[in-house]
Amino acid sequence: MDRIQLAPDLSFSRFIHGFWRAAEWKMSDQERLTFIEECREQGISTFDHADIYGSYTCESLFGEALRLQPTIRDQIEIVTKCGIVLPSSNRPNHTSHYYNTSYEHIIQSCETSLKNLHTDYIDVLLIHRPDPFMNPEEVAEAFTKLKREGKVRYFGVSNFKFHQFQLLQSYLDFDLVTNQIEISAYELENIHDGTLNFCQEKRIPPMAWSPLAGGKIFKGSDEKVCRLRTALEEVQGEINAHSIDEVLYAWLLSHSAKIMPIIGSGKIDRIKTAVQSLSYKLTPEQWYNIYTSSTGYDVP
Q1: pLDDT tens string 10-27
Q2: Quick check: is 53 catalytic?
């Protein structure tokens, strides 16, 4: 599998596996370890987390699996996120939903993630959402401390627009290495508002969450979904793909921005389907067929 270079000594697998729904998979620790190993056999070495996933449980689920075979840690890359606070029985002191990017919260969240993941370091730590109340000096201070102590190798953001990215970057002495954004053939906002262009300008490979649009393309019946599904099926036939899943992934992979889609499934067959899409390269005509079916109008 292709690898994407984020820094001189850091690369990610082109596909990233996300553990957002890991608590729903009902796997044992051994089954999760086997699943991680099966992902690695497919070439996927990068795993995406956040402190809040599974009501603050998914990092621990991953970490308990790693404890069964600690040598895997140096063969994978772990991404996790902080900055969202959710009410949860697993965090009795959290009674409301808000953002917290204070120095204290970032440090505490990272320390907890390290403990839950059973690791000494995190490869990339992201601020999960733009925080209107953010003090960028505090974020920079926390990032610098974690980097200096070797607890986090690199940093990035998630769901940031280009001006929000620039603001935080201006307070740092080192580069942010990625922006995790929602992007799919259905969700084009980050293409239209310049966020993806900014990533290309700064040579920042973006991670793409919900690359299959949360499944709505397969189950929805509104006009946009129907147009898009028809176009995907047309391209599927042209490239001899096995499913429109593969076409959706190929649409992202064909873009020059080095987009890294996040796969959120706990089924290895779905992982293999995603990886298969690496064998397809869409022509500009095919790419635009899908794009215009999503926008609902022809290009000027």
Answers
A1: 999 999 999 999 999 999
A2: yes
